[in-house]
Protein 1
Amino acid sequence: MKSRCKPKPNENGGYDSAKPTLRERNGQSAKRGLNRSISNAAWGELVNKIEAVAAKSGIPVIKINPKHTSQRCPKCHHTSKENRKKEKFLCTNCGHYNDADVNGAVNIKIRGLKKLGIDPTRRAP
């Protein structure tokens, strides 16, 4: 989300320099406000609020390490950087296809269930 947009050549094959417009910047300045708000977010306060609301409802909060969750296939468990191309996930081992964020969420759910001692392959009745 916070990575810099790649420059695209103009119609002459070169790159515009001096004062690039929004179009020439590939949306870089359009992302600037979003990037700043993400950087300035009080993540600790958000976690505390979630834990407080969950405690009132009797719901456990489990912290999961998100490392490699959007690069790991939930079907065959193959992990590779090549599995993720921008927003798309395509497993190079079994061919499983999904949105990378959805794939990451599925893997986080699986890790959470395992941490609770629940078999993630078991279907609810």
Note: Helices lie at 28-40, 43-57, 100-115.
Protein 2
Amino acid sequence: MKLHICQPHGYCEGVMRAITIALNKRKEHPNTPIAILGMLVHNEFVIELLEKHNIMTINRPTIDGDNSYLGNLPKDTLIIFTAHGHPLYYEDLITSFGLTYIDATCPKVEITHDIINEALNNNQDIIYIGQSNHPETEAALSIDDKRIFLYDLNDKLDFSRVKHQTPKVVNQTTLAINELEHVHNHILENIPGAEIHDEICRATRMRQEAVKNIPADVDLIYIVGSTHSNNTKKLVDVARISHPHADVYHIQSVADITPHQYENKKSAAVAAGASTPLHVTREVINHLKQLPE
């Protein structure tokens, strides 16, 4: 079987930075309880890696539903916020229980927050394009719950709520390029003076372009990454749109590959999300390389 490998694969800079922060804190504090408030990055293999270093993950719904959970943690527990950002009230919440926190928010996400804060200081409204309940979206909306309006990809936006004629438009960094262009056009049709900022991060953009550029004769595409990973799911969407005649599978690891998937297939491609460990993708690649042509 011919094999096309999409580049880049492996961790993006924001994911690598967050993992490095967590592991370095463990080295600096070998005996201190360390907990991530939510999935540090959206990949189960990374969560397993952290657990091996005695770094636990606290499900965010646990905190949102019952804050007293934090009060039961040892007072020297170090809390790490995830790469996606976090609701601002989490900071006060953590300190109210006498705990210390470290922020592992991706710098690309922080750039979006800076744009939002600058616009708010200039008395502009904000339209934020994202997915409701995604941690990156929740983090952005928490900056100002009265002047930031969510354009939910699943529910759009009631434009009558936006009073400013030139609102700033920003977005979740892991959206699909074509999807975002469509939303931008919809916003401009309703608010012609809107100021558009395309905040899809470079890592997301490069991976989506690589999937679009998979050779047309490829009839089997594997996208490797967690089902929790938005940027991985967008790669699946891009693959299905750009290669409608190929079979596209979203897999978490080589264990998800079955013979019926590649039966009678002549050419395959492999792409991976930005939080997928390199060794996981390489295992998929090596498995496919062993298949007869």
Note: The CA atoms of residues 71 and 97 lie 6 Å apart.
